[in-house]
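BUG-470 | component: ligand-complex export | severity: low

The export step for pyridoxal-5'-phosphate jobs runs without errors, but we want the raw record kept on the ticket for reference. Input record follows.
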Amino acid sequence: MKYISTRGEAPSLSFGEALIAGLAQDGGLYLPEAYPRLSESEIAGFAGQPYADVAETIIAPFAAGSVDRKTLRAAIDAAYARFDHAAVTPLVELGDNLFLLELFHGPTLAFKDLAMQLLSRLMRHVLAVRGRRATIVGATSGDTGAAAVAAFGDIDEVDLFILYPKDRISDVQRRQMTTFAGGNVHVVAIEGTFDDAQALVKALFADKRLRDEFSLSGVNSINWARVAAQAVYYFVAAAALGVPYRRVSFAVPTGNFGDIFAGWIAKRMGLPIERLVIATNANDILARALATGRYETGRVEVTQSPSMDIQVSSNFERLLFEAYGRDSAALRRLMGSLQKAGGFSIDSEPLAAIRAEFDAVRIGETETTEEIARLWRESRRLIDPHTAVGVGAGRAALRARPDVPMIVLGTAHPAKFPDAIERATGISPPLPAHLADLFSRQERFDFLANDAAVLETYIRQRRASKRAAS
Ligand SMILES: *Cc1c(COP(=O)(O)O)cnc(C)c1O
């Protein structure tokens, strides 16, 4: 399988090359040249299959030519052995035709583990085959960083640098990174928002000299392998509810548009999805874009669901590319306007194509708290604030189509965001046993200004000191 850039000015790459590259050299995002298509009987056969079997079937065609089937299977088995639920992603019923897909049974209690645990193993394989090392630099709104630290902490082929917006993530999120830092893992607090941190990372990648000097690699949700790994649980959940013999909808708490885009990929591969519901918090750029056709960045609002406190949803570029019939010149124009003027208008035909498959629902802070309280009151179930945004949006969309089952993606464990849960219910959810001592562990991080030159120097020094020490 070959991968092409949304901006059409970077070489097409193999799966392994795209895995290491992350972002394309022209600033675009990689997508497969074509989507593999599954038959109805293959999809029906997923019902009751172990998670790893479904994952192998879904991911193998994307990795073909770079990762042999046996290596892929071993990586999948090792990745999902670290989950503390036999089903990996259990599906539970919340109410009439309303379901919750629990994606938080991995080592860092958020859905990011599902892709990151696999990504680190595939990347190690691809690097080892090439006799190469890589420097991974990533920005995080909290959960990606923790998942990356947990996944790459013992991978010798990689130096990991994770940037997070200072004081804008939860204590649990921060400690999941800072208490595991050291060795090949460097955690950096940046003065600014997530978008500032992400812009710093993008600036590094845009510099060809630095890309080569550092062998830069990215694991943000722009990395294609993450999207591919996330498509798996859409199949698992839908098959459990009787798909392909009926249709289902999904509501997805959305920030960078990676998770919900994986659902769109699953649909492209043949999964009969009725609606994909983009659930946003007060940072509602996507809800506004769908309503008005104008994608316009605003100020980032701090909410209870910090992993969605994002104004630029990077993976939306992939959907736009498809909605524009893979017209990379059009994408260069839109993204140029985003950079220069802070926004762009989606043309009417692609906008109609997007609206034909997606809904977008904004759930504000009060509604989020009410949703957490409601589920606790009605069913003694604690959900985290991101998941609550998804449940709120899922309920709204279900009212419009009550006969189609709605599956909400539960993106984080409630113990990751105890303050929000306590505000809503008076209860503070305990951390699972493997993280019980999180608050007594030593934290290690550095604090840097929002400045690309400062970051460059920092990375150069840290990489050098690592080499000197080894
Ligand atoms: C990352 C994250 C999201 C948003 O996912 P995207 O792929 O960025 O849209 C939602 N909820 C939680 C808990 C997350 O960690």
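Assignee comment: Attached the raw record above. Residues 110, 112, 143, 221, 253-259, 307-308, 386, 411-412 surround pyridoxal-5'-phosphate (CB under 6 Å).
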